């Protein structure tokens, strides 16, 4: 095994799928907090009233249902591109005005997720995804 060579394509695609699934599960929690108040945030005080077509409501829909689509690997590339944009907006609208550095403005998760979703928009969902199943069926039917 050469440490300077990339892993074999099979393992690279499997790990890409695992990364996509874990990121989706984490991301969906943010959406479920906004939409369903679950899991509870632990923030003191009453829960703010929820409006579906508010900025928070749209973010919750994108995070929960977009995360669900990423979880199963359905339309991974376009969904990831949209979620990348959502995280960029979240960072510059919510976090960046507080301070310059992400570690200070608590925006590091938004930055990491933004670039992770950008990677998925180019790399796709990996071999363990609905997209891969659809791609495989199309090749068989040709």
Question: Any overview of this molecule?
Answer:
- With 142 residues, this protein is an all-alpha fold.
- The chain has one domain (9-141).
- 69% of the residues lie in helices and 0% in strands.
- It has six helices and no strands.
- The chain has helices at residues 9-36, 55-72, 76-95, 102-105, 108-123, 130-141.
- α3 (76-95) runs antiparallel to α5.
- The mean pLDDT is 92.
User: What fraction, in percent, of the residue positions are helical?
Assistant: 55-70%
β content, as a range?
under 5%
User: Low-confidence segments, ≥5 residues, pLDDT <50?
Assistant: none
Number of DSSP strand runs: 0
Can you give the mean pLDDT?
A: 92
Shape: globular
